[in-house]
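Proteins fold reproducibly. Look at a concrete instance:
___
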Amino acid sequence: MNHRYRTPLKDVRGLGSAKEGTHHFIVQRLTAIALIFLACWFLYFAIGLMHADYLTAADAVAKPWNATLLVAFLAAMFWHAQLGMQVVIEDYVHSHGLALAAQIAVRFICILGALASVFAVVRIALGS
């Protein structure tokens, strides 16, 4: 086939999707918006408990509204952190193997951190 009749689009077709980046961008912005409100609530909540003893703090976390918002804050925070680190790794780690290992490590660390944090909140909320 004569290559002078190929369009630039034909040369790049199949080299990657332009659709995944938009989803990643939107999710990152949505988690950031959620974190604005949840972080404001968390600061208010934490400052209110600054001089409280453990039982008072545990009682405050055990309230359904506070436990729900705390779990939402933790989930949004770890999800947003994972998305942000993914962008940093994609932009600055140029070795494919190292980038893949870093992506897997970041994902596992964020999942483990989120699970441990949510487990702690649920444990306090259920009183065990």
